[in-house]
Design goal:
alpha/beta; CBS-domain; 14 helices; single chain; 15% strand; binds zinc ion
């Protein structure tokens, strides 16, 4: 998901917003101001309708944020850190740093989202009822009632047992508990996600053909997104299955070539890419040899030529605090989401005791491991996806 901007940090978690939220925000404001409120309660000023529409849109986005924060808080309580959180047109995605350890944890983390939305729905419903009794102007009551409805709808949609929705995770947790096999549970939940996605696509196009109304396109689009996301989750599950029991230490490239932070970009480029520096990413080390960051060809590329003689790698690198890191004895399957999320597409492996650099993990390290594991288990085929990736 590209085209996102950072909104800020809540409880230490980066909250990003996809541009599609702006579209939803606008749609909610306009449809309430021009449509629902004006039609149901005519006679108020245009400013009233638009002000209310805008306020409802703000509270709506805040409701989605509350849903995602609930996931994040419960995940953290179950010992899983949250990478970041992105709001987009269908709600939000809280990206976890690792997988739930037990079906129970999965159930709690996934279930709390829809639960939060239901509670918000009930709360807004009660508030609307109370405001109605107080004889508050109709459009205000209508706006609060709309918030109640949309939160219930959000809970219902997210509870559909299809990956990547919360309901898909609940299904996975149940199947995991029932079969004792998290991999098979994930594969089934992904299949359910694909199936539901196709239903939406077919329904969307069919309704467009029958009614001639283009709103079906929206449904089809959501279906298409679900198919893609469920397929990706299924592949991730297969990957985790292949990598089960393998540690970061086993797949990392140990003792990678490093560059001193004080090296200028020009000095570095004089030595790269044919000699000592033949990779596309290098850990950067301080004077005492401790890792301070990661520099990539892309970061060098962004440094304007005239400044390369005076700019050091320490200035252009991705600082260690922002780089993806792992400890050597972590399961490598836990590190995959971090590797996917990392802008530099590398994970630095640090000694948990002293912070010393032990190795680096890139996609090619993972792919090499998968290829060999598949070959060793006799499951490698020429059409194997693991080999092509
Ligand atoms: Zn959710």
């Amino acid at each position: 998901m590209k085209a996102t901007f950072t909104l800020g940090r809540i409880a230490g978690v980066r909250v990003a917003v996809n541009w599609s939220v702006v579209v939803i925000f606008w749609l909610v404001t306009v449809s309430l101001a021009e449509g629902r409120l004006a039609h149901a309660y005519p006679g108020y000023s245009t400013a009233t309708y638009w002000g209310l529409g805008f306020a409802v849109a703000v509270v709506f986005v805040a409701s989605i944020l509350a849903h995602e924060l609930a996931h994040a808080v419960v995940a953290r309580r179950n010992g899983i850190e949250v990478e970041d959180m992105t709001l987009w047109m269908l709600g939000g995605v809280a990206r976890l740093k690792s997988e739930a350890r037990t079906p129970g944890a999965e159930l709690r983390i996934a279930g709390v989202g829809p639960l939060t939305s239901v509670l918000l729905g009930i709360l807004f419903g009660l508030l609307a009822g109370w405001l109605g009794v107080l004889a508050v102007p109709g459009p205000v009551v209508e706006a609060v009632a709309w918030l109640a409805g949309i939160n219930i709808l959000l809970a219902l949609f997210n509870s559909i047992p299809a990956a990547p929705l919360d309901g898909g995770r609940l299904l996975r947790a149940a199947l995991w508990k029932f079969t004792g096999n998290p991999l098979r549970a994930a594969v089934i939940a992904a299949a359910a996600g694909r199936g539901f996605g196709w239903l939406l696509v077919i329904y969307g196009f069919a309704s467009m053909l029958v009614t001639g109304d283009f709103s079906g396109l929206w449904t089809a689009l959501i279906g298409g997104f679900m198919i893609a996301a469920a397929t990706a989750e299924g592949q991730q599950a297969q990957l985790r299955g292949t990598l089960a029991g393998i540690t970061v230490r086993q797949v990392m490239t140990p003792d990678p070539v490093t560059v001193p932070a004080a090296t200028t970009v020009e000095q570095f480029l004089a030595a790269a890419p044919f000699g000592h520096y033949r990779h596309t990413a290098f850990p950067v080390v301080g004077p005492d040899g401790t890792p301070v960051g990661l520099v990539t060809a892309a970061r060098i590329d962004r440094t304007p030529s005239p400044q390369r003689a005076t700019t050091t790698l320490g200035e252009v690198m991705c600082p260690i605090g922002e780089a993806a890191t792992a400890s050597p004895d972590e399961p490598v399957s836990d590190v995959l989401p971090r590797l996917e999320a990392a802008g530099e597409r590398r994970v630095l492996v640090l000694d948990p005791a002293g912070g010393r650099l032990l190795g680096i993990v890139s996609h090619s390290d993972i792919n090499r491991a998968i290829t060999w594991l598949a070959a060793a288990r006799g499951t490698a085929r020429t059409d194997d996806r693991g080999e092509a990736r």
